[in-house]
């Protein structure tokens, strides 16, 4: 059986695991106050071009989203997201559980179009009944999006301008950020993100770590008492060193980028193979997720040999399915999958 | 420098780490639906004497407490805890963040005395204004407690009887459960806990794992949609296998008990050494945490050679401090500490 | 200036006010434990054909919605509503503030179509990722809806059947219920609602009272500790008698129905007048709210002489506006409005 | 039967009721945007000596407390209150329901002693584990307190100084404020409160109105989007005019003070009568609540002729009971009560 369900099917990249093994018996204080966390933070700040940023480590994506959003929003406000946004669909109501509405905008290939955001904000602020409505108090985007697409530098800049105009923060969910940065044709870099968002995170779980997300807050002190918020949200790991050690490994000798690039190249090979066999690719996803339109009969046949996610029905006869590669995907498995088609 | 601050200063027990290394490249589905989780669950059910229980894995203790409590309480209810209880003091308001009050009872050496609980429940139910008060809807205890003490089998039985009388669940926080089970003189076993609580958890973070807590719900189906609750509370690990693998290792060949026993024996040796030098031991803590009354000058001197936690001031001249041992503590470090006293 | 903005522009119906004046100096205990509340509850139970129901009084609609929904939903669940539903749009995120998502369905003239509800439930329950999604745990409808439309008895029955099939409660917001019951052509009566919902409320604020909503729970005991929930949500009026006195007056000699009928008749006259002058009526609203399509220039002109709410833009040149009548609207004001058109 | 249970046993003061009757048919817009609210706000600002303050009207005390506290606290913070504070004991967990812990300090005759507050803040800020604890983010006091006592001007000043030192707001619950201002010997005036708190409210429900509390925010704009917060918390009355009308009446020709003074004088007469008969008065409550120590047998006997609240047990043979007077209490009823003793 070939596995293309997700990018979290294995453990950690060998370099990351090696580092965990080597440090296993070194004693450190808990909760992220250790030297490994300090070292990893320095490396992340450097690669982001942010000497003065705050960096914090959390365990997983949903936890990170809920913690950041709850920290940034005042109690009268909600977070704006695409209707396909992870927080809107697949986080079990974690944002609402902390008291905040997710205000959705119809997505365009998984993205929030800047002008849709602008229209929503204009509409709210000109509404006579706005005091009876939830204040749109921040914007959540994911990069890559849930449909595998990427924002362009211009789109990101425009979103940030609109947020600045309305004095609300822009938050970028980078659970798969490595794969976005390594995609062909992207003009969005880590320093660019750092200059055009108020908070973002660099995903480790899906990019070589056992687990872990590095939250970057470009403007130091922008979120107060964030450690207390992380603890309150259940995200403060007792052995916080594990996060520091892993991110330190990931940001040593460009490992994060290299392993992301590996996944993107294999995904590109998959797309090439699918197209060569006449399949329709969906959404235009340039990173490590590929969405393919399959006839339902073909899909059922394929499921006997490979695992992948069913994304959405497409008419009565077809389904959009998702194939995901990762730092761990073997080139030969991609070839085998192509042969199956 | 000698380190006795806590039981989470190292990585994982070598057997646990070995298992993570060996399984690193095996592909599994995510979120705890893998075979390692299944295997670990079977072992835990077996050692608890609970063939039909539900078992779930979460990442950390605060997260587990908040998730279980939020799952068990109706919206009009709060959780009863000792005033020294971890949820009352050191979880950054995580319980309140999910909308519930922590109703405190003055502790007796860290424990809730059964008759104090009974008195609180009688008082609430006979209060003319009870509709204006928070309903005491469950009871939280920790074992060992935050003062290192243990419930006796009789106390646990009595607490459960009172809970049953008022039809409210009893929840046991077992973040350090191994050390309780391995303590000298305890008559509380895992199957006994399983028969006298509604939910409890077996701590991994402090007992040999990198992280992880195993929630056991003796009556299958007692909590509905618990996976959704875990996800909502940010506790559903993408690579859930990591929890299964670790707990599988911990519950293979009695490892969990053996490594706990190691810590308890070293702690006993510490106590013996302290007493021999004339120090006063506090609270009567029989497991892996030892509380010692130190003159402030002595404490300052000792801090130059060893790390430990300041627990509470005791008059103007003294302080209670805590020394913690773990599965990883070396016998020679204990001897060195004794020599320093 | 003529006022047709809403049905809460005056104080109370004279009979209600008279009753408040007469009882002003009678001393009663607080929080709804007085004889006036008892009397009003008996009358409401009688008119609903529910000898054994629970009835509770709250102050306002948003408060009532938030309290009922928070009381009915388990923590992993959200409430299903039309995308035009009051809780989804105009309650400042009160539902989310208590931790629950509002799951929206595209409305059909303000209503949830039974088959749309069924499709949403089928979709959730067949989704492989449903554990990561918010459980649709109850259904909220308003009658009349926010677009002034009414459910038919058959629609209500079908919604209830679907809810029963999925074992989730159906909650009916009756902030304007009197006007629905008094509408021409409706086949939905109060006893019918009582048999086809799990909770509903009879609005007083907009139908003759100074304020007040009567929550009816057909199955006694269906919601536990509801007084505590009302108190927690800030809805337990100290002088609870004020609610009992007003509802007792409203349900004496059919007053609630009679004054509702008055409003409906004047609204019908408005519609007749608008149509006679060639205006397009929107949504098909048979009760006390009338929605009219106006050219923007005409709207601006009219605003100099009358107040009304702007509902939504309709293309570039038109706007849908809302005119509302109430128990207090004078027939002559309706004629004056018609003349202005 | 004589009634001394509470100060909310009747309707409204005749002048207030008269104003409601006279304005009953005047049409106004909803939600507090009417001229009566504007007029009442002006009068309140004037009597507080605060030409630039924000004033808002809510319906009841629990609602007001929950809304103000939720508006002022960041998500990582809790509110400090006396352990006898209304929010800590008798509001059904409304503060916790909005996600915040109530951090209690042992009361001194119902009050927070300034030095106890200081000690709590020093302790928190010097705690090594403070990041794992709830940040004490504001202070709640009630005046009169739940034990009928009053802060002195010096105490209030000192509390405010401490809050300023720690940059946290001081909030005063004035549900019975009139009775405090009218008490003999107090040196605390409305302008003094205005200068020494960040938010306070002037209670109407217990002082002559049918219901209603006027929130005063001395520094305009100190709380943003407060109308949205009121709406979210279910406190935005559709017929908001009812609040404006009542407070306008209460602050016309000193009515609020005069009727409060009436209650205080009768309460003083009660105390005189109790003392003359040898009863022990408790707590030293100078306003409209009097706490008396009764033998249990005497209490039972008295309950056949008068209603009053049981406050707390006092040893095995005695009980502290509370007698409350109000603007509506008749002098002759006080004499009758004294005779019964």
Structure in words:
The structure is a homotetramer. In chain A, about 40% of the residues lie in helices and about 20% in strands. Chain A has 14 helices and 13 strands. In chain A, strands 2-8-7-6-5-3-4 form a seven-stranded mixed sheet, sandwiched between helices. In chain A, helix 1 packs across helix 11, helix 2 (about 35-50) packs parallel to helix 11 (about 240-250) and helix 12 packs parallel to helix 14. The mean pLDDT of chain A is about 95. The interface between A and B is large, with 53 and 53 residues.
Summarize the structure.
4 copies of one chain form a homotetramer. By secondary structure, the first copy, chain A, is of the alpha/beta class.
Look up the CATH topology of the largest domain in chain A: Aspartate Aminotransferase, domain 2
Main sheet specs of chain A: 7 strands, mixed
Question: Per DSSP, what share of the residues of chain A sits in E-state strands of 2 or more residues?
Answer: 15-25%
Distance between the termini of chain A: 14 Å
Please give a handful of descriptors for the protein shown.
alpha/beta; seven-stranded mixed sheet; globular; four-stranded antiparallel sheet; Aspartate Aminotransferase, domain 1; 341 residues; homotetramer; 18% strand; 14 helices; Aspartate Aminotransferase, domain 2
């Amino acid at each position: 059986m070939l596995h293309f369900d997700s990018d979290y099917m294995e453990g950690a990249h060998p370099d990351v695991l090696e580092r965990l093994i080597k440090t296993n018996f070194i004693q450190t204080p808990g909760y992220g106050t250790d030297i490994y966390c300090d070292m990893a933070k320095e490396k992340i700040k450097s690669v982001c071009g942010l000497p003065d940023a705050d960096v914090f480590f959390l365990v997983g994506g949903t936890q990170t989203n809920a913690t950041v959003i709850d920290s940034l929003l005042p109690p009268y406000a909600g977070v704006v997201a695409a209707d396909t946004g992870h927080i809107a669909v697949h986080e079990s109501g974690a944002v609402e559980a902390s008291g905040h509405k997710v205000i959705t905008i119809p997505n365009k290939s998984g993205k929030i179009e800047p002008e849709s955001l602008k229209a929503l904000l204009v509409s709210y602020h000109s509404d006579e009944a706005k005091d009876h409505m939830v204040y749109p108090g921040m914007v959540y985007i994911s990069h890559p999006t849930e449909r595998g697409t990427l924002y362009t530098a211009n789109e990101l800049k425009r979103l940030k301008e609109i947020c600045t105009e309305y004095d609300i923060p822009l938050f970028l969910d980078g659970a798969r950020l490595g794969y976005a940065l390594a995609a062909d044709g992207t003009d969005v870099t880590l320093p660019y993100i750092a200059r055009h968002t108020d908070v973002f995170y660099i995903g480790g779980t899906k990019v070589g770590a056992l687990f872990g997300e590095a939250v970057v807050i470009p403007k130091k002190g922008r979120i107060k008492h964030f450690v207390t918020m992380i603890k309150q949200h259940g995200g403060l790991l007792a052995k916080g060193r594990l996060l520091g050690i892993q991110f330190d490994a990931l940001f040593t000798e460009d490992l994060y980028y290299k392993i992301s690039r590996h996944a993107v190249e294999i995904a590109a090979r998959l797309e090439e193979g699918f197209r060569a066999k006449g399949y329709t690719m969906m959404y235009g996803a340039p990173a490590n997720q590929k969405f393919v339109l399959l006839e339902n009969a073909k899909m059922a046949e394929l499921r006997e040999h490979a695992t992948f996610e069913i994304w959405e029905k497409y008419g009565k006869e077809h389904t959009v399915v998702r194939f995901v590669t990762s730092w761990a995907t073997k080139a030969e498995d991609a070839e085998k999958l192509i042969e199956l088609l």
